[in-house]
Input
Amino acid sequence: MGAARTSVRQRRAVPWVVLALWLAALVLAGPLAGKFSGIQQNRSVDYLPDSADSTQVARIQDRLPGGEATDLILVYHRDGGLTAADRSRAAAQVAEIGTAYPLTGKPRAVPSKDGSTLMYPVSSTRPGQDDKARDAFVDGVRDIADGGAGLSVEVGGPGGLQTDMSKVFGSIDGTLLYATLGVVTALLILIYRSPFLWLVPLAVAGVAAGMAMAAGYGLHEAFGVTVTGQSGGVMTVLVLGAGTDYALLLISRYREELRRHERPYEAMRAALKGCGPAVLASSGTVAAGLLCLLAADLNSSRGMGPVGMVGVLAALVAMTTLLPALLVLLGRRVFWPLIPAFGSEPRVRRSLFAAMGTSATRRPVVVLAGGAVLLGALALGALNLPGGLKQEDSFTAKPESISASQTLARAYPGRSSQPITVIAPAGKADAVLAEARTTAGVAQASAGRSGSGWTEISVYATAAPESKGETRTIEALRAGLDDTYGTYVGGPSAQQLDLADSQARDREVVVPLVLAAVFVILVGLLRSLVAPLMLLVAVVAVWGAALGIGGLVFGPVLGFHGTDPGLGLLSFVFLVALGVDYGIFLMHRMREESLAGAEPRAAALTALRTTGGVIASAGVVLAATFAVLTTLPLVGLVELGFVIAVGVLLDTFLVRTYLVTTASVLLERRVWWPGRLSRAPEPVRAERQPETV
Output
């Protein structure tokens, strides 16, 4: 009796110990989490690989006299032509800027041929200049540059673009966190229909997000992992979306076990034992898929791997330790008013997913073929995806720097307003300058700062920024100068070119790694080769269909003029890793039923009936959290959020419900080949009775 009482006391103490450990961890991690947004790097060059020409240009520019340069272009424009007063006003304002800030040289006006526009290139360099100093300089110039009646003044150029981009990314963290929490809150209230229960997983998800931010900061400080606004935003969505999914699965199973076990502690142990392997495998596939990004050449993608991984692991640990502890401490009353009583039977009602499964398995070949044709037809929409995304098209709302570049493109059609930067060895600068001026597509070239053994040369192309003509000019400069003189060719347009090239290489490397990693985890969980292959084919088909729907929506409906070069790779990694989650939930329950002796068809339908509701709820929550990305002002994040949200919904309501279930019924026991479940059980022989005489 004494031993039994001691055991009960120990069981009661476990949740309190877990809660105390989490409180201690929060005290330690809280200050680190607050620093997470401060380590984000959002310059274009921060996304590029170290080996890229444009990356080398940016690093050398940092070492030149004055440090990193902030290059601006002031654009004065009046429809119908500038007046003498306009020109005087512009000259006075530029002089005031020169008095207020240390400029690298006296800005000179460049008038357009039609007399409607005046362009003033302005550059400032200061030792130790950082993003805050740059933004202060840009904002100060914008305050001074003021138009009048009919006279517009816009401040653009690379520095203006970086400041506008920085402000957008600076607003993402808070906007994304609160919007995602709001969406998850609304969905949990609808799912649980309880005034209290929704608070528990939501609070735990918030704790997991804080821990993930602290871990992300630690990765940056300890290993130099690049954290961008994009990876930080995706991490937040992953923590809240995936974490809520794990909570839904665990709470659903816990509710079942409370009807079978009198004590909440025992019910939670059974729930963790039942769904724990599926949750572990689910988080493992996402973490493994993200870690494959470490093989990427692109700095931003390589950094997103470990940043996203710590988000998923934080969600896993919180939902399998803190959430169970809180639920056990709160007891059955947390489910009020629908409290599952011990020994009771759940209310029997017609299951939507049971009906869907039955309808799908009546004519399985027709359903499977029809689903495959539908997904294939949707995938064809990917052929309609717009081309590469230019910097001027990367915002959903047009900031001042983009408006300035568009004004320049109209007023100066014969030359680019954005320089191509050539960094040449100081001893070869004159020869490089002469060679650059004779390169096809070059309108103008001039030498600038020198120092640290290098000279900066600004080259202006005859073609518009980020056009095919300018791309040919950049390639010609690299071909003619790099090997001969040891130069580096960079600048904003060259960065976009290097970005696209790196993304193409990364797709070829990372995609096979993701498929292999996920396949190995599925084989280990399901003890089969056929079931993992079936799930991988399904998620790849979903990815293609989701991209196809994006092709039908981005240009024709949303008016986007380009596709982010990272969309294909990142959407593949997330849809394969996250999409397999729901296959794991379904197939793991199907395997449980098969191990219990159910026939293949019955096992498939039972698995769908028992997990269909929670998978649907989890899918809606995950899709909604990624859909929050579509409210942000960056086209790349809107496209990524849209494709993943659509893919998750396709996976949840079409592929898992109909196609995977139908394929499992058609394959019967072969779905578990070569595991022991693939073999029919031996018939039970009746014992031979002794003969009576």
